[in-house]
């Protein structure tokens, strides 16, 4: 690593784009290198920070701000962090970047129709049934990164995608 601090990777994309699958493969690769890594997965963090989530703009702003601050503390302790989170506004991810010197953004690009067909958590199904009105990329805006360090095809092999991320970490001298 380039310093005593760890690094952070924010893996972003619309729901069901492949973020979690890529994250699982990436964790395996980093752990195989002996790198301590903690995943801050938005659903898990939301259960802690906003257990009765409304997904309002105000709540999302507070949630992602808190998540970024938690990530920064963890990175400062020397543990690497992977944010496995949609973070539908650029400002959320940019805020994390402003806090964490060794930061990398990975954009998982996947067509919304593919994501809707995958729908492992039933998010799009609830939207279709009128049970939610807050799905990023469908009902509320998803702002893709302007200059992510890595763009991955959400329809491609997750293991290969995780290797691309590791290669980029090497280029940045984070590992």
**How many distinct domains?**
1
Strands ordered across the widest β-sheet: 2-3-1-4-5
DSSP strand content: 5-15%
Shape: globular
What summary fits the major beta sheet? 5 strands, parallel
How far do the termini sit from each other? 5 Å
Radius of gyration: 16 Å
- Provide the CATH architecture: 3-Layer(aba) Sandwich
The CATH topology, please? Rossmann fold
Structural class: alpha/beta
CATH superfamily caption? P-loop containing nucleotide triphosphate hydrolases
CATH class: Alpha Beta
| Number of extended strands | 5
- What is the H/E order? EHEHHEHEHHEH
Low-confidence parts, pLDDT < 50 over ≥5 residues? Answer: none
Helix content: 40-55%
Mean pLDDT: 95
Explain how this protein is built.
The chain is an alpha/beta fold and 175 residues long. It has helices at 19-32, 42-49, 57-76, 90-99, 112-118, 123-128, 158-171, and strands at residues 8-12, 37-41, 80-84, 103-109, 150-153. It contains seven helices and five strands. Strands 2-3-1-4-5 form a five-stranded parallel sheet, sandwiched between helices. The chain is globular and about 45 Å long.
List keywords for this structure.
5-stranded parallel sheet; globular; 5 strands; Rossmann fold; alpha/beta; 175 residues
């Amino acid at each position: 690593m380039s310093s005593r601090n760890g690094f952070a990777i924010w893996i972003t994309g619309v729901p069901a784009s492949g973020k979690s699958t890529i994250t699982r493969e990436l964790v395996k690769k980093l752990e195989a290198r002996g790198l301590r890594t903690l995943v801050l997965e938005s659903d898990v963090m939301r259960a802690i920070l906003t257990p009765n989530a409304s997904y309002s703009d105000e709540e999302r702003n507070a949630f992602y701000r808190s998540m970024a601050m938690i990530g920064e503390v963890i990175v400062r302790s020397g543990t690497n962090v992977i944010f496995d989170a949609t973070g539908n506004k650029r400002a959320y991810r940019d805020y994390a970047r402003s806090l964490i010197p060794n930061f990398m953004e990975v954009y998982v690009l996947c067509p919304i129709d593919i994501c809707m067909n995958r729908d492992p958590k039933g998010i799009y199904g609830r939207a279709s049934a009128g049970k939610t009105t807050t799905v990023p990329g469908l009902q509320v805006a998803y702002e893709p990164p302007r200059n992510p360090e890595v763009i991955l095809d959400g329809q491609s092999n997750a293991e290969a995608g995780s290797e691309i991320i590791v290669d980029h970490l090497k280029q940045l001298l984070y590992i």
